[in-house]
Design a protein that fits this description.
The protein has about 110 residues and is an alpha+beta fold. The chain has one domain. About 35% of the residues lie in helices and about 20% in strands. The chain is built from four helices and four strands; from the N terminus they run ββββαααα. Strands 1, 2, 3 and 4 form a four-stranded antiparallel sheet that branches. A hairpin with a 6-residue loop joins β3 and β4. It is globular. It starts with 8 loop residues before the first strand and ends with a helix.
């Protein structure tokens, strides 16, 4: 979502029943965010699942190429604590099936 760093989440169906939508030549995916007030939303930037260590390596390389994108990769202040908890919560679901993950975390 605009103004937020990459945030741990999983793909869910929107209230309209859609997973993906296209508007103004942009594809958006509907997701539920871990550790963010039980909110879901549409995002245009996604990446495949990876561990926190892998994410940090991706972030380091991306920031090296374009310093102006550092806010996309590096939450700060109170958001950093929430992001770390979201990452831990997401990593705890790795062993779950998609159905189990939805049952446990979908709001």
């Amino acid at each position: 979502m605009a103004g937020f760093p990459y945030w741990p989440c999983f793909v869910t169906r929107s209230s309209d029943g859609d997973y993906i939508r296209e508007a103004k030549n942009k594809i958006s995916v509907h997701v539920q965010f871990f550790n963010w007030n039980d909110e879901s939303g549409w995002v245009t930037k996604t990446m495949p699942w990876c561990s926190v260590a892998e994410f940090r390596r991706f972030a380091k390389e991306a920031i090296k190429e374009d310093v102006s994108c550092s806010m996309d990769w590096s939450p700060v202040g109170k958001m950093l604590h929430k992001w770390k908890n979201a990452a831990l919560q997401a990593e705890s679901t790795v062993h779950l099936s998609r159905k189990e993950r939805h049952k446990r975390f979908l709001v």
